[in-house]
């Protein structure tokens, strides 16, 4: 009321038509431009942009205009701009009259100034000239020139090249994740050809294990896991199909731009293939909450946030999630832009699609009709066609009348959460005649398994649906089925996305359209009125985007040097570390982008360089000037990732199953771990793999989010909840205990001992030297052999006096070998597998 009288006076004074440039523009420039940050947190309102301002105006009707409601604080809204910047009654009157007169806005009037930043990461990628150096003979390619030029500034010389055995072990572990065999080491050391090393690099790049090693790094960024997470943490039986896609794509050297497009928007590509639809399983790695009583809309919102933030982190190296509740505190990312980016992922349906492996389709088609007939017969026998339609009708009534029948309310809630591979609430609204076979089967299965929520245990027992469920599962398992892949599709229809006030999923602010960050080059969608994820994917790898190639080559460099050029690979923003070699980073980024986005090509360039081939031995003279080896005057010495620690033990012992791809495995783990999961009272949820599967590579271990495999966690394995661009490296007592006592490492030690004793009689020192070379890739010194022999004799004496000390050390004896000797050899082998040198890449 306090503004009423001044407003009346002001309105009377404005009988003459309002002139935009003379009357309106000065108000917007002096009072409203600069206050849009606070306004956006409330509603996304900004008045320094023609399109933005006119979107909240109804020409001729100020009373219906959001702009007028905001500047006056009408309808319970907070008046904008807030605080002492409030508009005067005269300024409000001016804007009201302008709206009522039609809100004319000349096209060349106020326009939103482009967001600019001087931060290095947002600048275009250059292609720097290769610098001159003090020793051109050292440089094998431009990478070396950039490294040496930086060392020249501090008058530091690079380290000499590593010896051939160290070099082959290093590049084998870096490229395939497996140590070289004794035969490979001996052949390489005997090869005197000038291109012997380059030949080994090509062999390793062509290995199918290259895809496994490099897929594991990418899966960290994709937050891959084999289970939902949260309370129930259901298994995802076909999550591995996405993992297979990544392995195959990397082995085929799929260009990184195509690799990006297929994962971000493969389902939107014309005539999308099964592989491309499996690729968008990237978005299905988000957590899924199936707890009772949760708000489904909240966790749909959380999933959209996760997908948006993960794409921004994995490809752009940005922490856009910091703008969920307010404008980013450090980077030029507004809250509105955060939700514009999220809008690309705001309306996705999770689906399962057929993604058959080679050889599956024929047997499936041959038996499919027979399988369907038997399934339908079982459903008919248990009266499912009679009981299900009334259940569907009752469920829909329960949705429309919550609170009237609490049992049916629970059943309705469970329909969304407990329908495997889909949302039963959406399926039940599709008329039965229009459901796909997959939708009908999923809904029928959900009805059979969860009918008791609605009708109670007594009726459920009478209809014998538990018995039916068992028969249906057995029937399915007895017939060939097609492998499926977790995928996504766009929800049908037209949808709106909104800014969420203070990050609260329930507090809808202004509507937002899918768009990218203003500090980066603009999006150029195929349809300007309807930007899609496919447009976003193409923008991510466009030539104009400076972040993607920098982030990608930084990732590759990190895996080959143990540290990245930008040591905060998840944050290229203003709070992240600047690049240690900015010109080198840009040269690598431009070379990567301009030469077909080839990951193998970039890896080849780096590992062939003199910089990569340097010795990793510490240099005392650099302890004060470059203690972290930032200048790369030597190679880095780093502990192997968790999976590779296990792989190496299995490989050198002869146990490793080298099959590539396929389902996840369940190796032995300590008793009681599986029981820690919700609802698990025994280890039935972790059915230990047998046969060859037991010895597959570590990347295939089933990643259960709530109870992760202990060995992987002890060695800083994947987090699986958020994108992980860099793994931690810790040294703990648990790691030592793991290597000493874990069943996998005990088996490996026994197998290595068996191999050492299988070639017939030989002196201890000869056998020990062979086991040493097999484990560490080099011959032992006399002192090392002395130590092993002393330890062997001590262990032998202990077991000789106390035979029970050998119990459990081995399961089989080579011919002619006594238990005491075998037990002592297992102990020696365990020592070799526990050495720091064994779990370290020099």
Describe this structure in words.
By secondary structure, the protein is mainly alpha-helical. 48% of the residues lie in helices and 3% in strands. The strands form three sheets. The chain has a two-stranded antiparallel sheet with strand order 1-2. The chain is globular and about 110 Å long.
The side-by-side strand order for the widest beta sheet comes to 1-2
* Continuous helix count: 35
Strand content: under 5%
In terms of quaternary structure, the protein is single chain
Helix fraction, binned, reads 40-55%
Secondary structure: number of strands:
6
Largest sheet: 2 strands, antiparallel
Shape category:
globular
What is the average of the pLDDT values? 91
User: CA-to-CA gap between the ends?
Assistant: 77 Å
* Radius of gyration (Å): 32 Å
The secondary-structure class comes to mainly alpha
Low-confidence stretches: 1-14, 33-43
């Amino acid at each position: 009321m306090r503004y009423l009288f001044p407003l009346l006076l002001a309105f009377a004074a404005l009988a003459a038509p309002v002139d935009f440039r003379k009357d309106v523009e000065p108000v917007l420039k002096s009072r409203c431009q600069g206050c849009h940050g606070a306004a956006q947190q409330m509603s996304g309102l900004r008045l320094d942009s023609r399109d933005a301002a006119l979107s909240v105006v109804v020409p001729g009707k100020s009373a219906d205009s959001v702009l007028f409601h905001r500047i006056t604080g009408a309808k319970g809204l907070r008046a904008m701009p807030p605080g002492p910047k409030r508009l005067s009654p005269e300024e409000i009157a001016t804007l009201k009259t302008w709206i009522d007169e039609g809100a004319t806005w000349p096209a060349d009037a106020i326009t939103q100034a482009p967001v600019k930043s001087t931060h290095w990461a947002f600048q275009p990628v250059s292609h720097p000239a290769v610098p001159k150096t003090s020793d051109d003979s050292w440089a094998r390619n431009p990478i070396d020139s950039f490294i040496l030029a930086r060392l020249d500034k501090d008058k530091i010389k690079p380290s000499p090249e590593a010896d051939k055995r160290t070099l082959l072990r290093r590049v084998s572990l870096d490229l395939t994740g497996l140590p070289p065999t004794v035969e490979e080491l001996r052949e390489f050391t005997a090869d005197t050809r000038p291109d012997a090393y380059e030949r080994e690099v090509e062999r390793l790049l062509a290995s199918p294990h290259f895809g496994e090693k490099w897929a594991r790094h990418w899966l960290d960024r994709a937050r891959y896991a084999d289970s939902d997470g949260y309370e129930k943490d259901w298994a995802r039986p076909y999550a591995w199909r996405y993992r297979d896609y990544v392995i195959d794509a990397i082995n085929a050297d799929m260009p990184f731009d195509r690799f990006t497009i297929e994962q971000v928007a493969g389902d939107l590509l014309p005539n999308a293939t099964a592989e491309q639809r499996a690729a968008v399983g990237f978005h299905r790695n988000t957590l899924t909450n199936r707890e009772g009583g949760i708000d489904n809309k909240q966790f749909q919102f959380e999933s959209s946030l996760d997908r948006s933030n993960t794409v921004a982190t994995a490809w752009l190296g940005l922490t856009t999630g910091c703008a969920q509740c307010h404008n980013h505190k450090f980077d030029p990312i507004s809250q509105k832009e955060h939700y514009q980016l999220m809008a690309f992922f705001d309306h996705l349906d999770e689906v399962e699609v057929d993604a058959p492996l080679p050889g599956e389709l024929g047997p499936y088609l041959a038996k499919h009709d027979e399988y369907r007939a038997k399934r339908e017969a079982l459903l008919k026998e248990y009266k499912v066609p009679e009981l299900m339609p009334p259940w569907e009708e009752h469920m829909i009534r329960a949705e429309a009348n919550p609170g009237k029948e609490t049992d049916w309310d629970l059943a309705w809630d469970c329909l969304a959460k407990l329908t495997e591979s889909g949302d039963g609430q959406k399926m039940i609204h599709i008329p039965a005649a229009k459901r796909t076979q997959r939708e009908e089967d999923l809904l029928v299965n959900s009805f059979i398994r969860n009918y008791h929520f609605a009708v109670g245990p007594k009726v459920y027992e009478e209809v014998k649906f538990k018995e039916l469920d068992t028969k249906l599962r057995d029937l399915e398992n007895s017939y060939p089925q097609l492998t499926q892949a977790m995928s996504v599709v766009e929800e049908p229809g037209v949808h709106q996305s909104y800014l969420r006030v203070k990050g609260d999923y329930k507090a809808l602010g202004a509507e937002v359209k899918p768009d990218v960050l203003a500090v980066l080059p603009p999006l150029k969608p195929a349809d300007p009125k309807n930007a899609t994820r496919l447009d976003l994917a193409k923008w991510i790898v466009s030539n104009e985007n400076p972040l993607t190639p920098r982030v990608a080559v930084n990732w590759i460099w990190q895996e080959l040097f143990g540290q990245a050029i930008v040591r905060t690979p998840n944050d290229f923003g203003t709070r992240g570390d600047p690049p240690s070699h900015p010109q080198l980073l840009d040269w690598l980024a431009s070379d990567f982008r301009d030469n077909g986005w080839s990951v193998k090509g970039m890896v080849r360039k780096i590992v062939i360089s003199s910089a990569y081939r340097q010795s990793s031995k510490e240099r005392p003279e650099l302890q004060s000037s470059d203690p972290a080896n930032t200048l790369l005057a030597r190679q880095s010495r780093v502990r192997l990732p968790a999976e590779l620690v296990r792989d190496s033990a299995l490989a050198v012992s002869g146990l490793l199953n080298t099959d590539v791809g396929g389902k996840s495995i369940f190796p032995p783990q300590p008793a009681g771990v599986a029981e820690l999961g919700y609802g698990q009272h025994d280890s039935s949820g972790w059915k230990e793999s047998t046969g060859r599967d037991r010895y597959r590579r570590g990347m295939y271990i089933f990643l259960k989010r709530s109870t992760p495999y202990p060995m992987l966690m002890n060695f800083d394995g994947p987090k699986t909840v958020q994108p992980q661009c860099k793994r931690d490296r810790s040294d703990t007592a648990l790691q030592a205990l793991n290597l000493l006592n874990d069943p996998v490492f005990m088996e490996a030690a026994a197998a290595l001992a068996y191999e050492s004793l299988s070639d017939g009689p030989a002196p201890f020192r000869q056998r020990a030297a062979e086991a040493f070379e097999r484990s560490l890739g080099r011959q032992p010194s006399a002192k090392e052999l002395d130590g092993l022999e002393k330890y062997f004799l001590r262990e032998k004496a202990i077991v000789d006096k106390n035979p029970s000390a050998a119990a459990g050390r081995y399961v089989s004896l080579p011919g002619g070998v006594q238990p005491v000797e075998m037990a002592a050899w297992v102990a020696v082998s365990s020592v070799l597998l526990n050495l720091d040198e064994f779990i370290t890449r020099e």
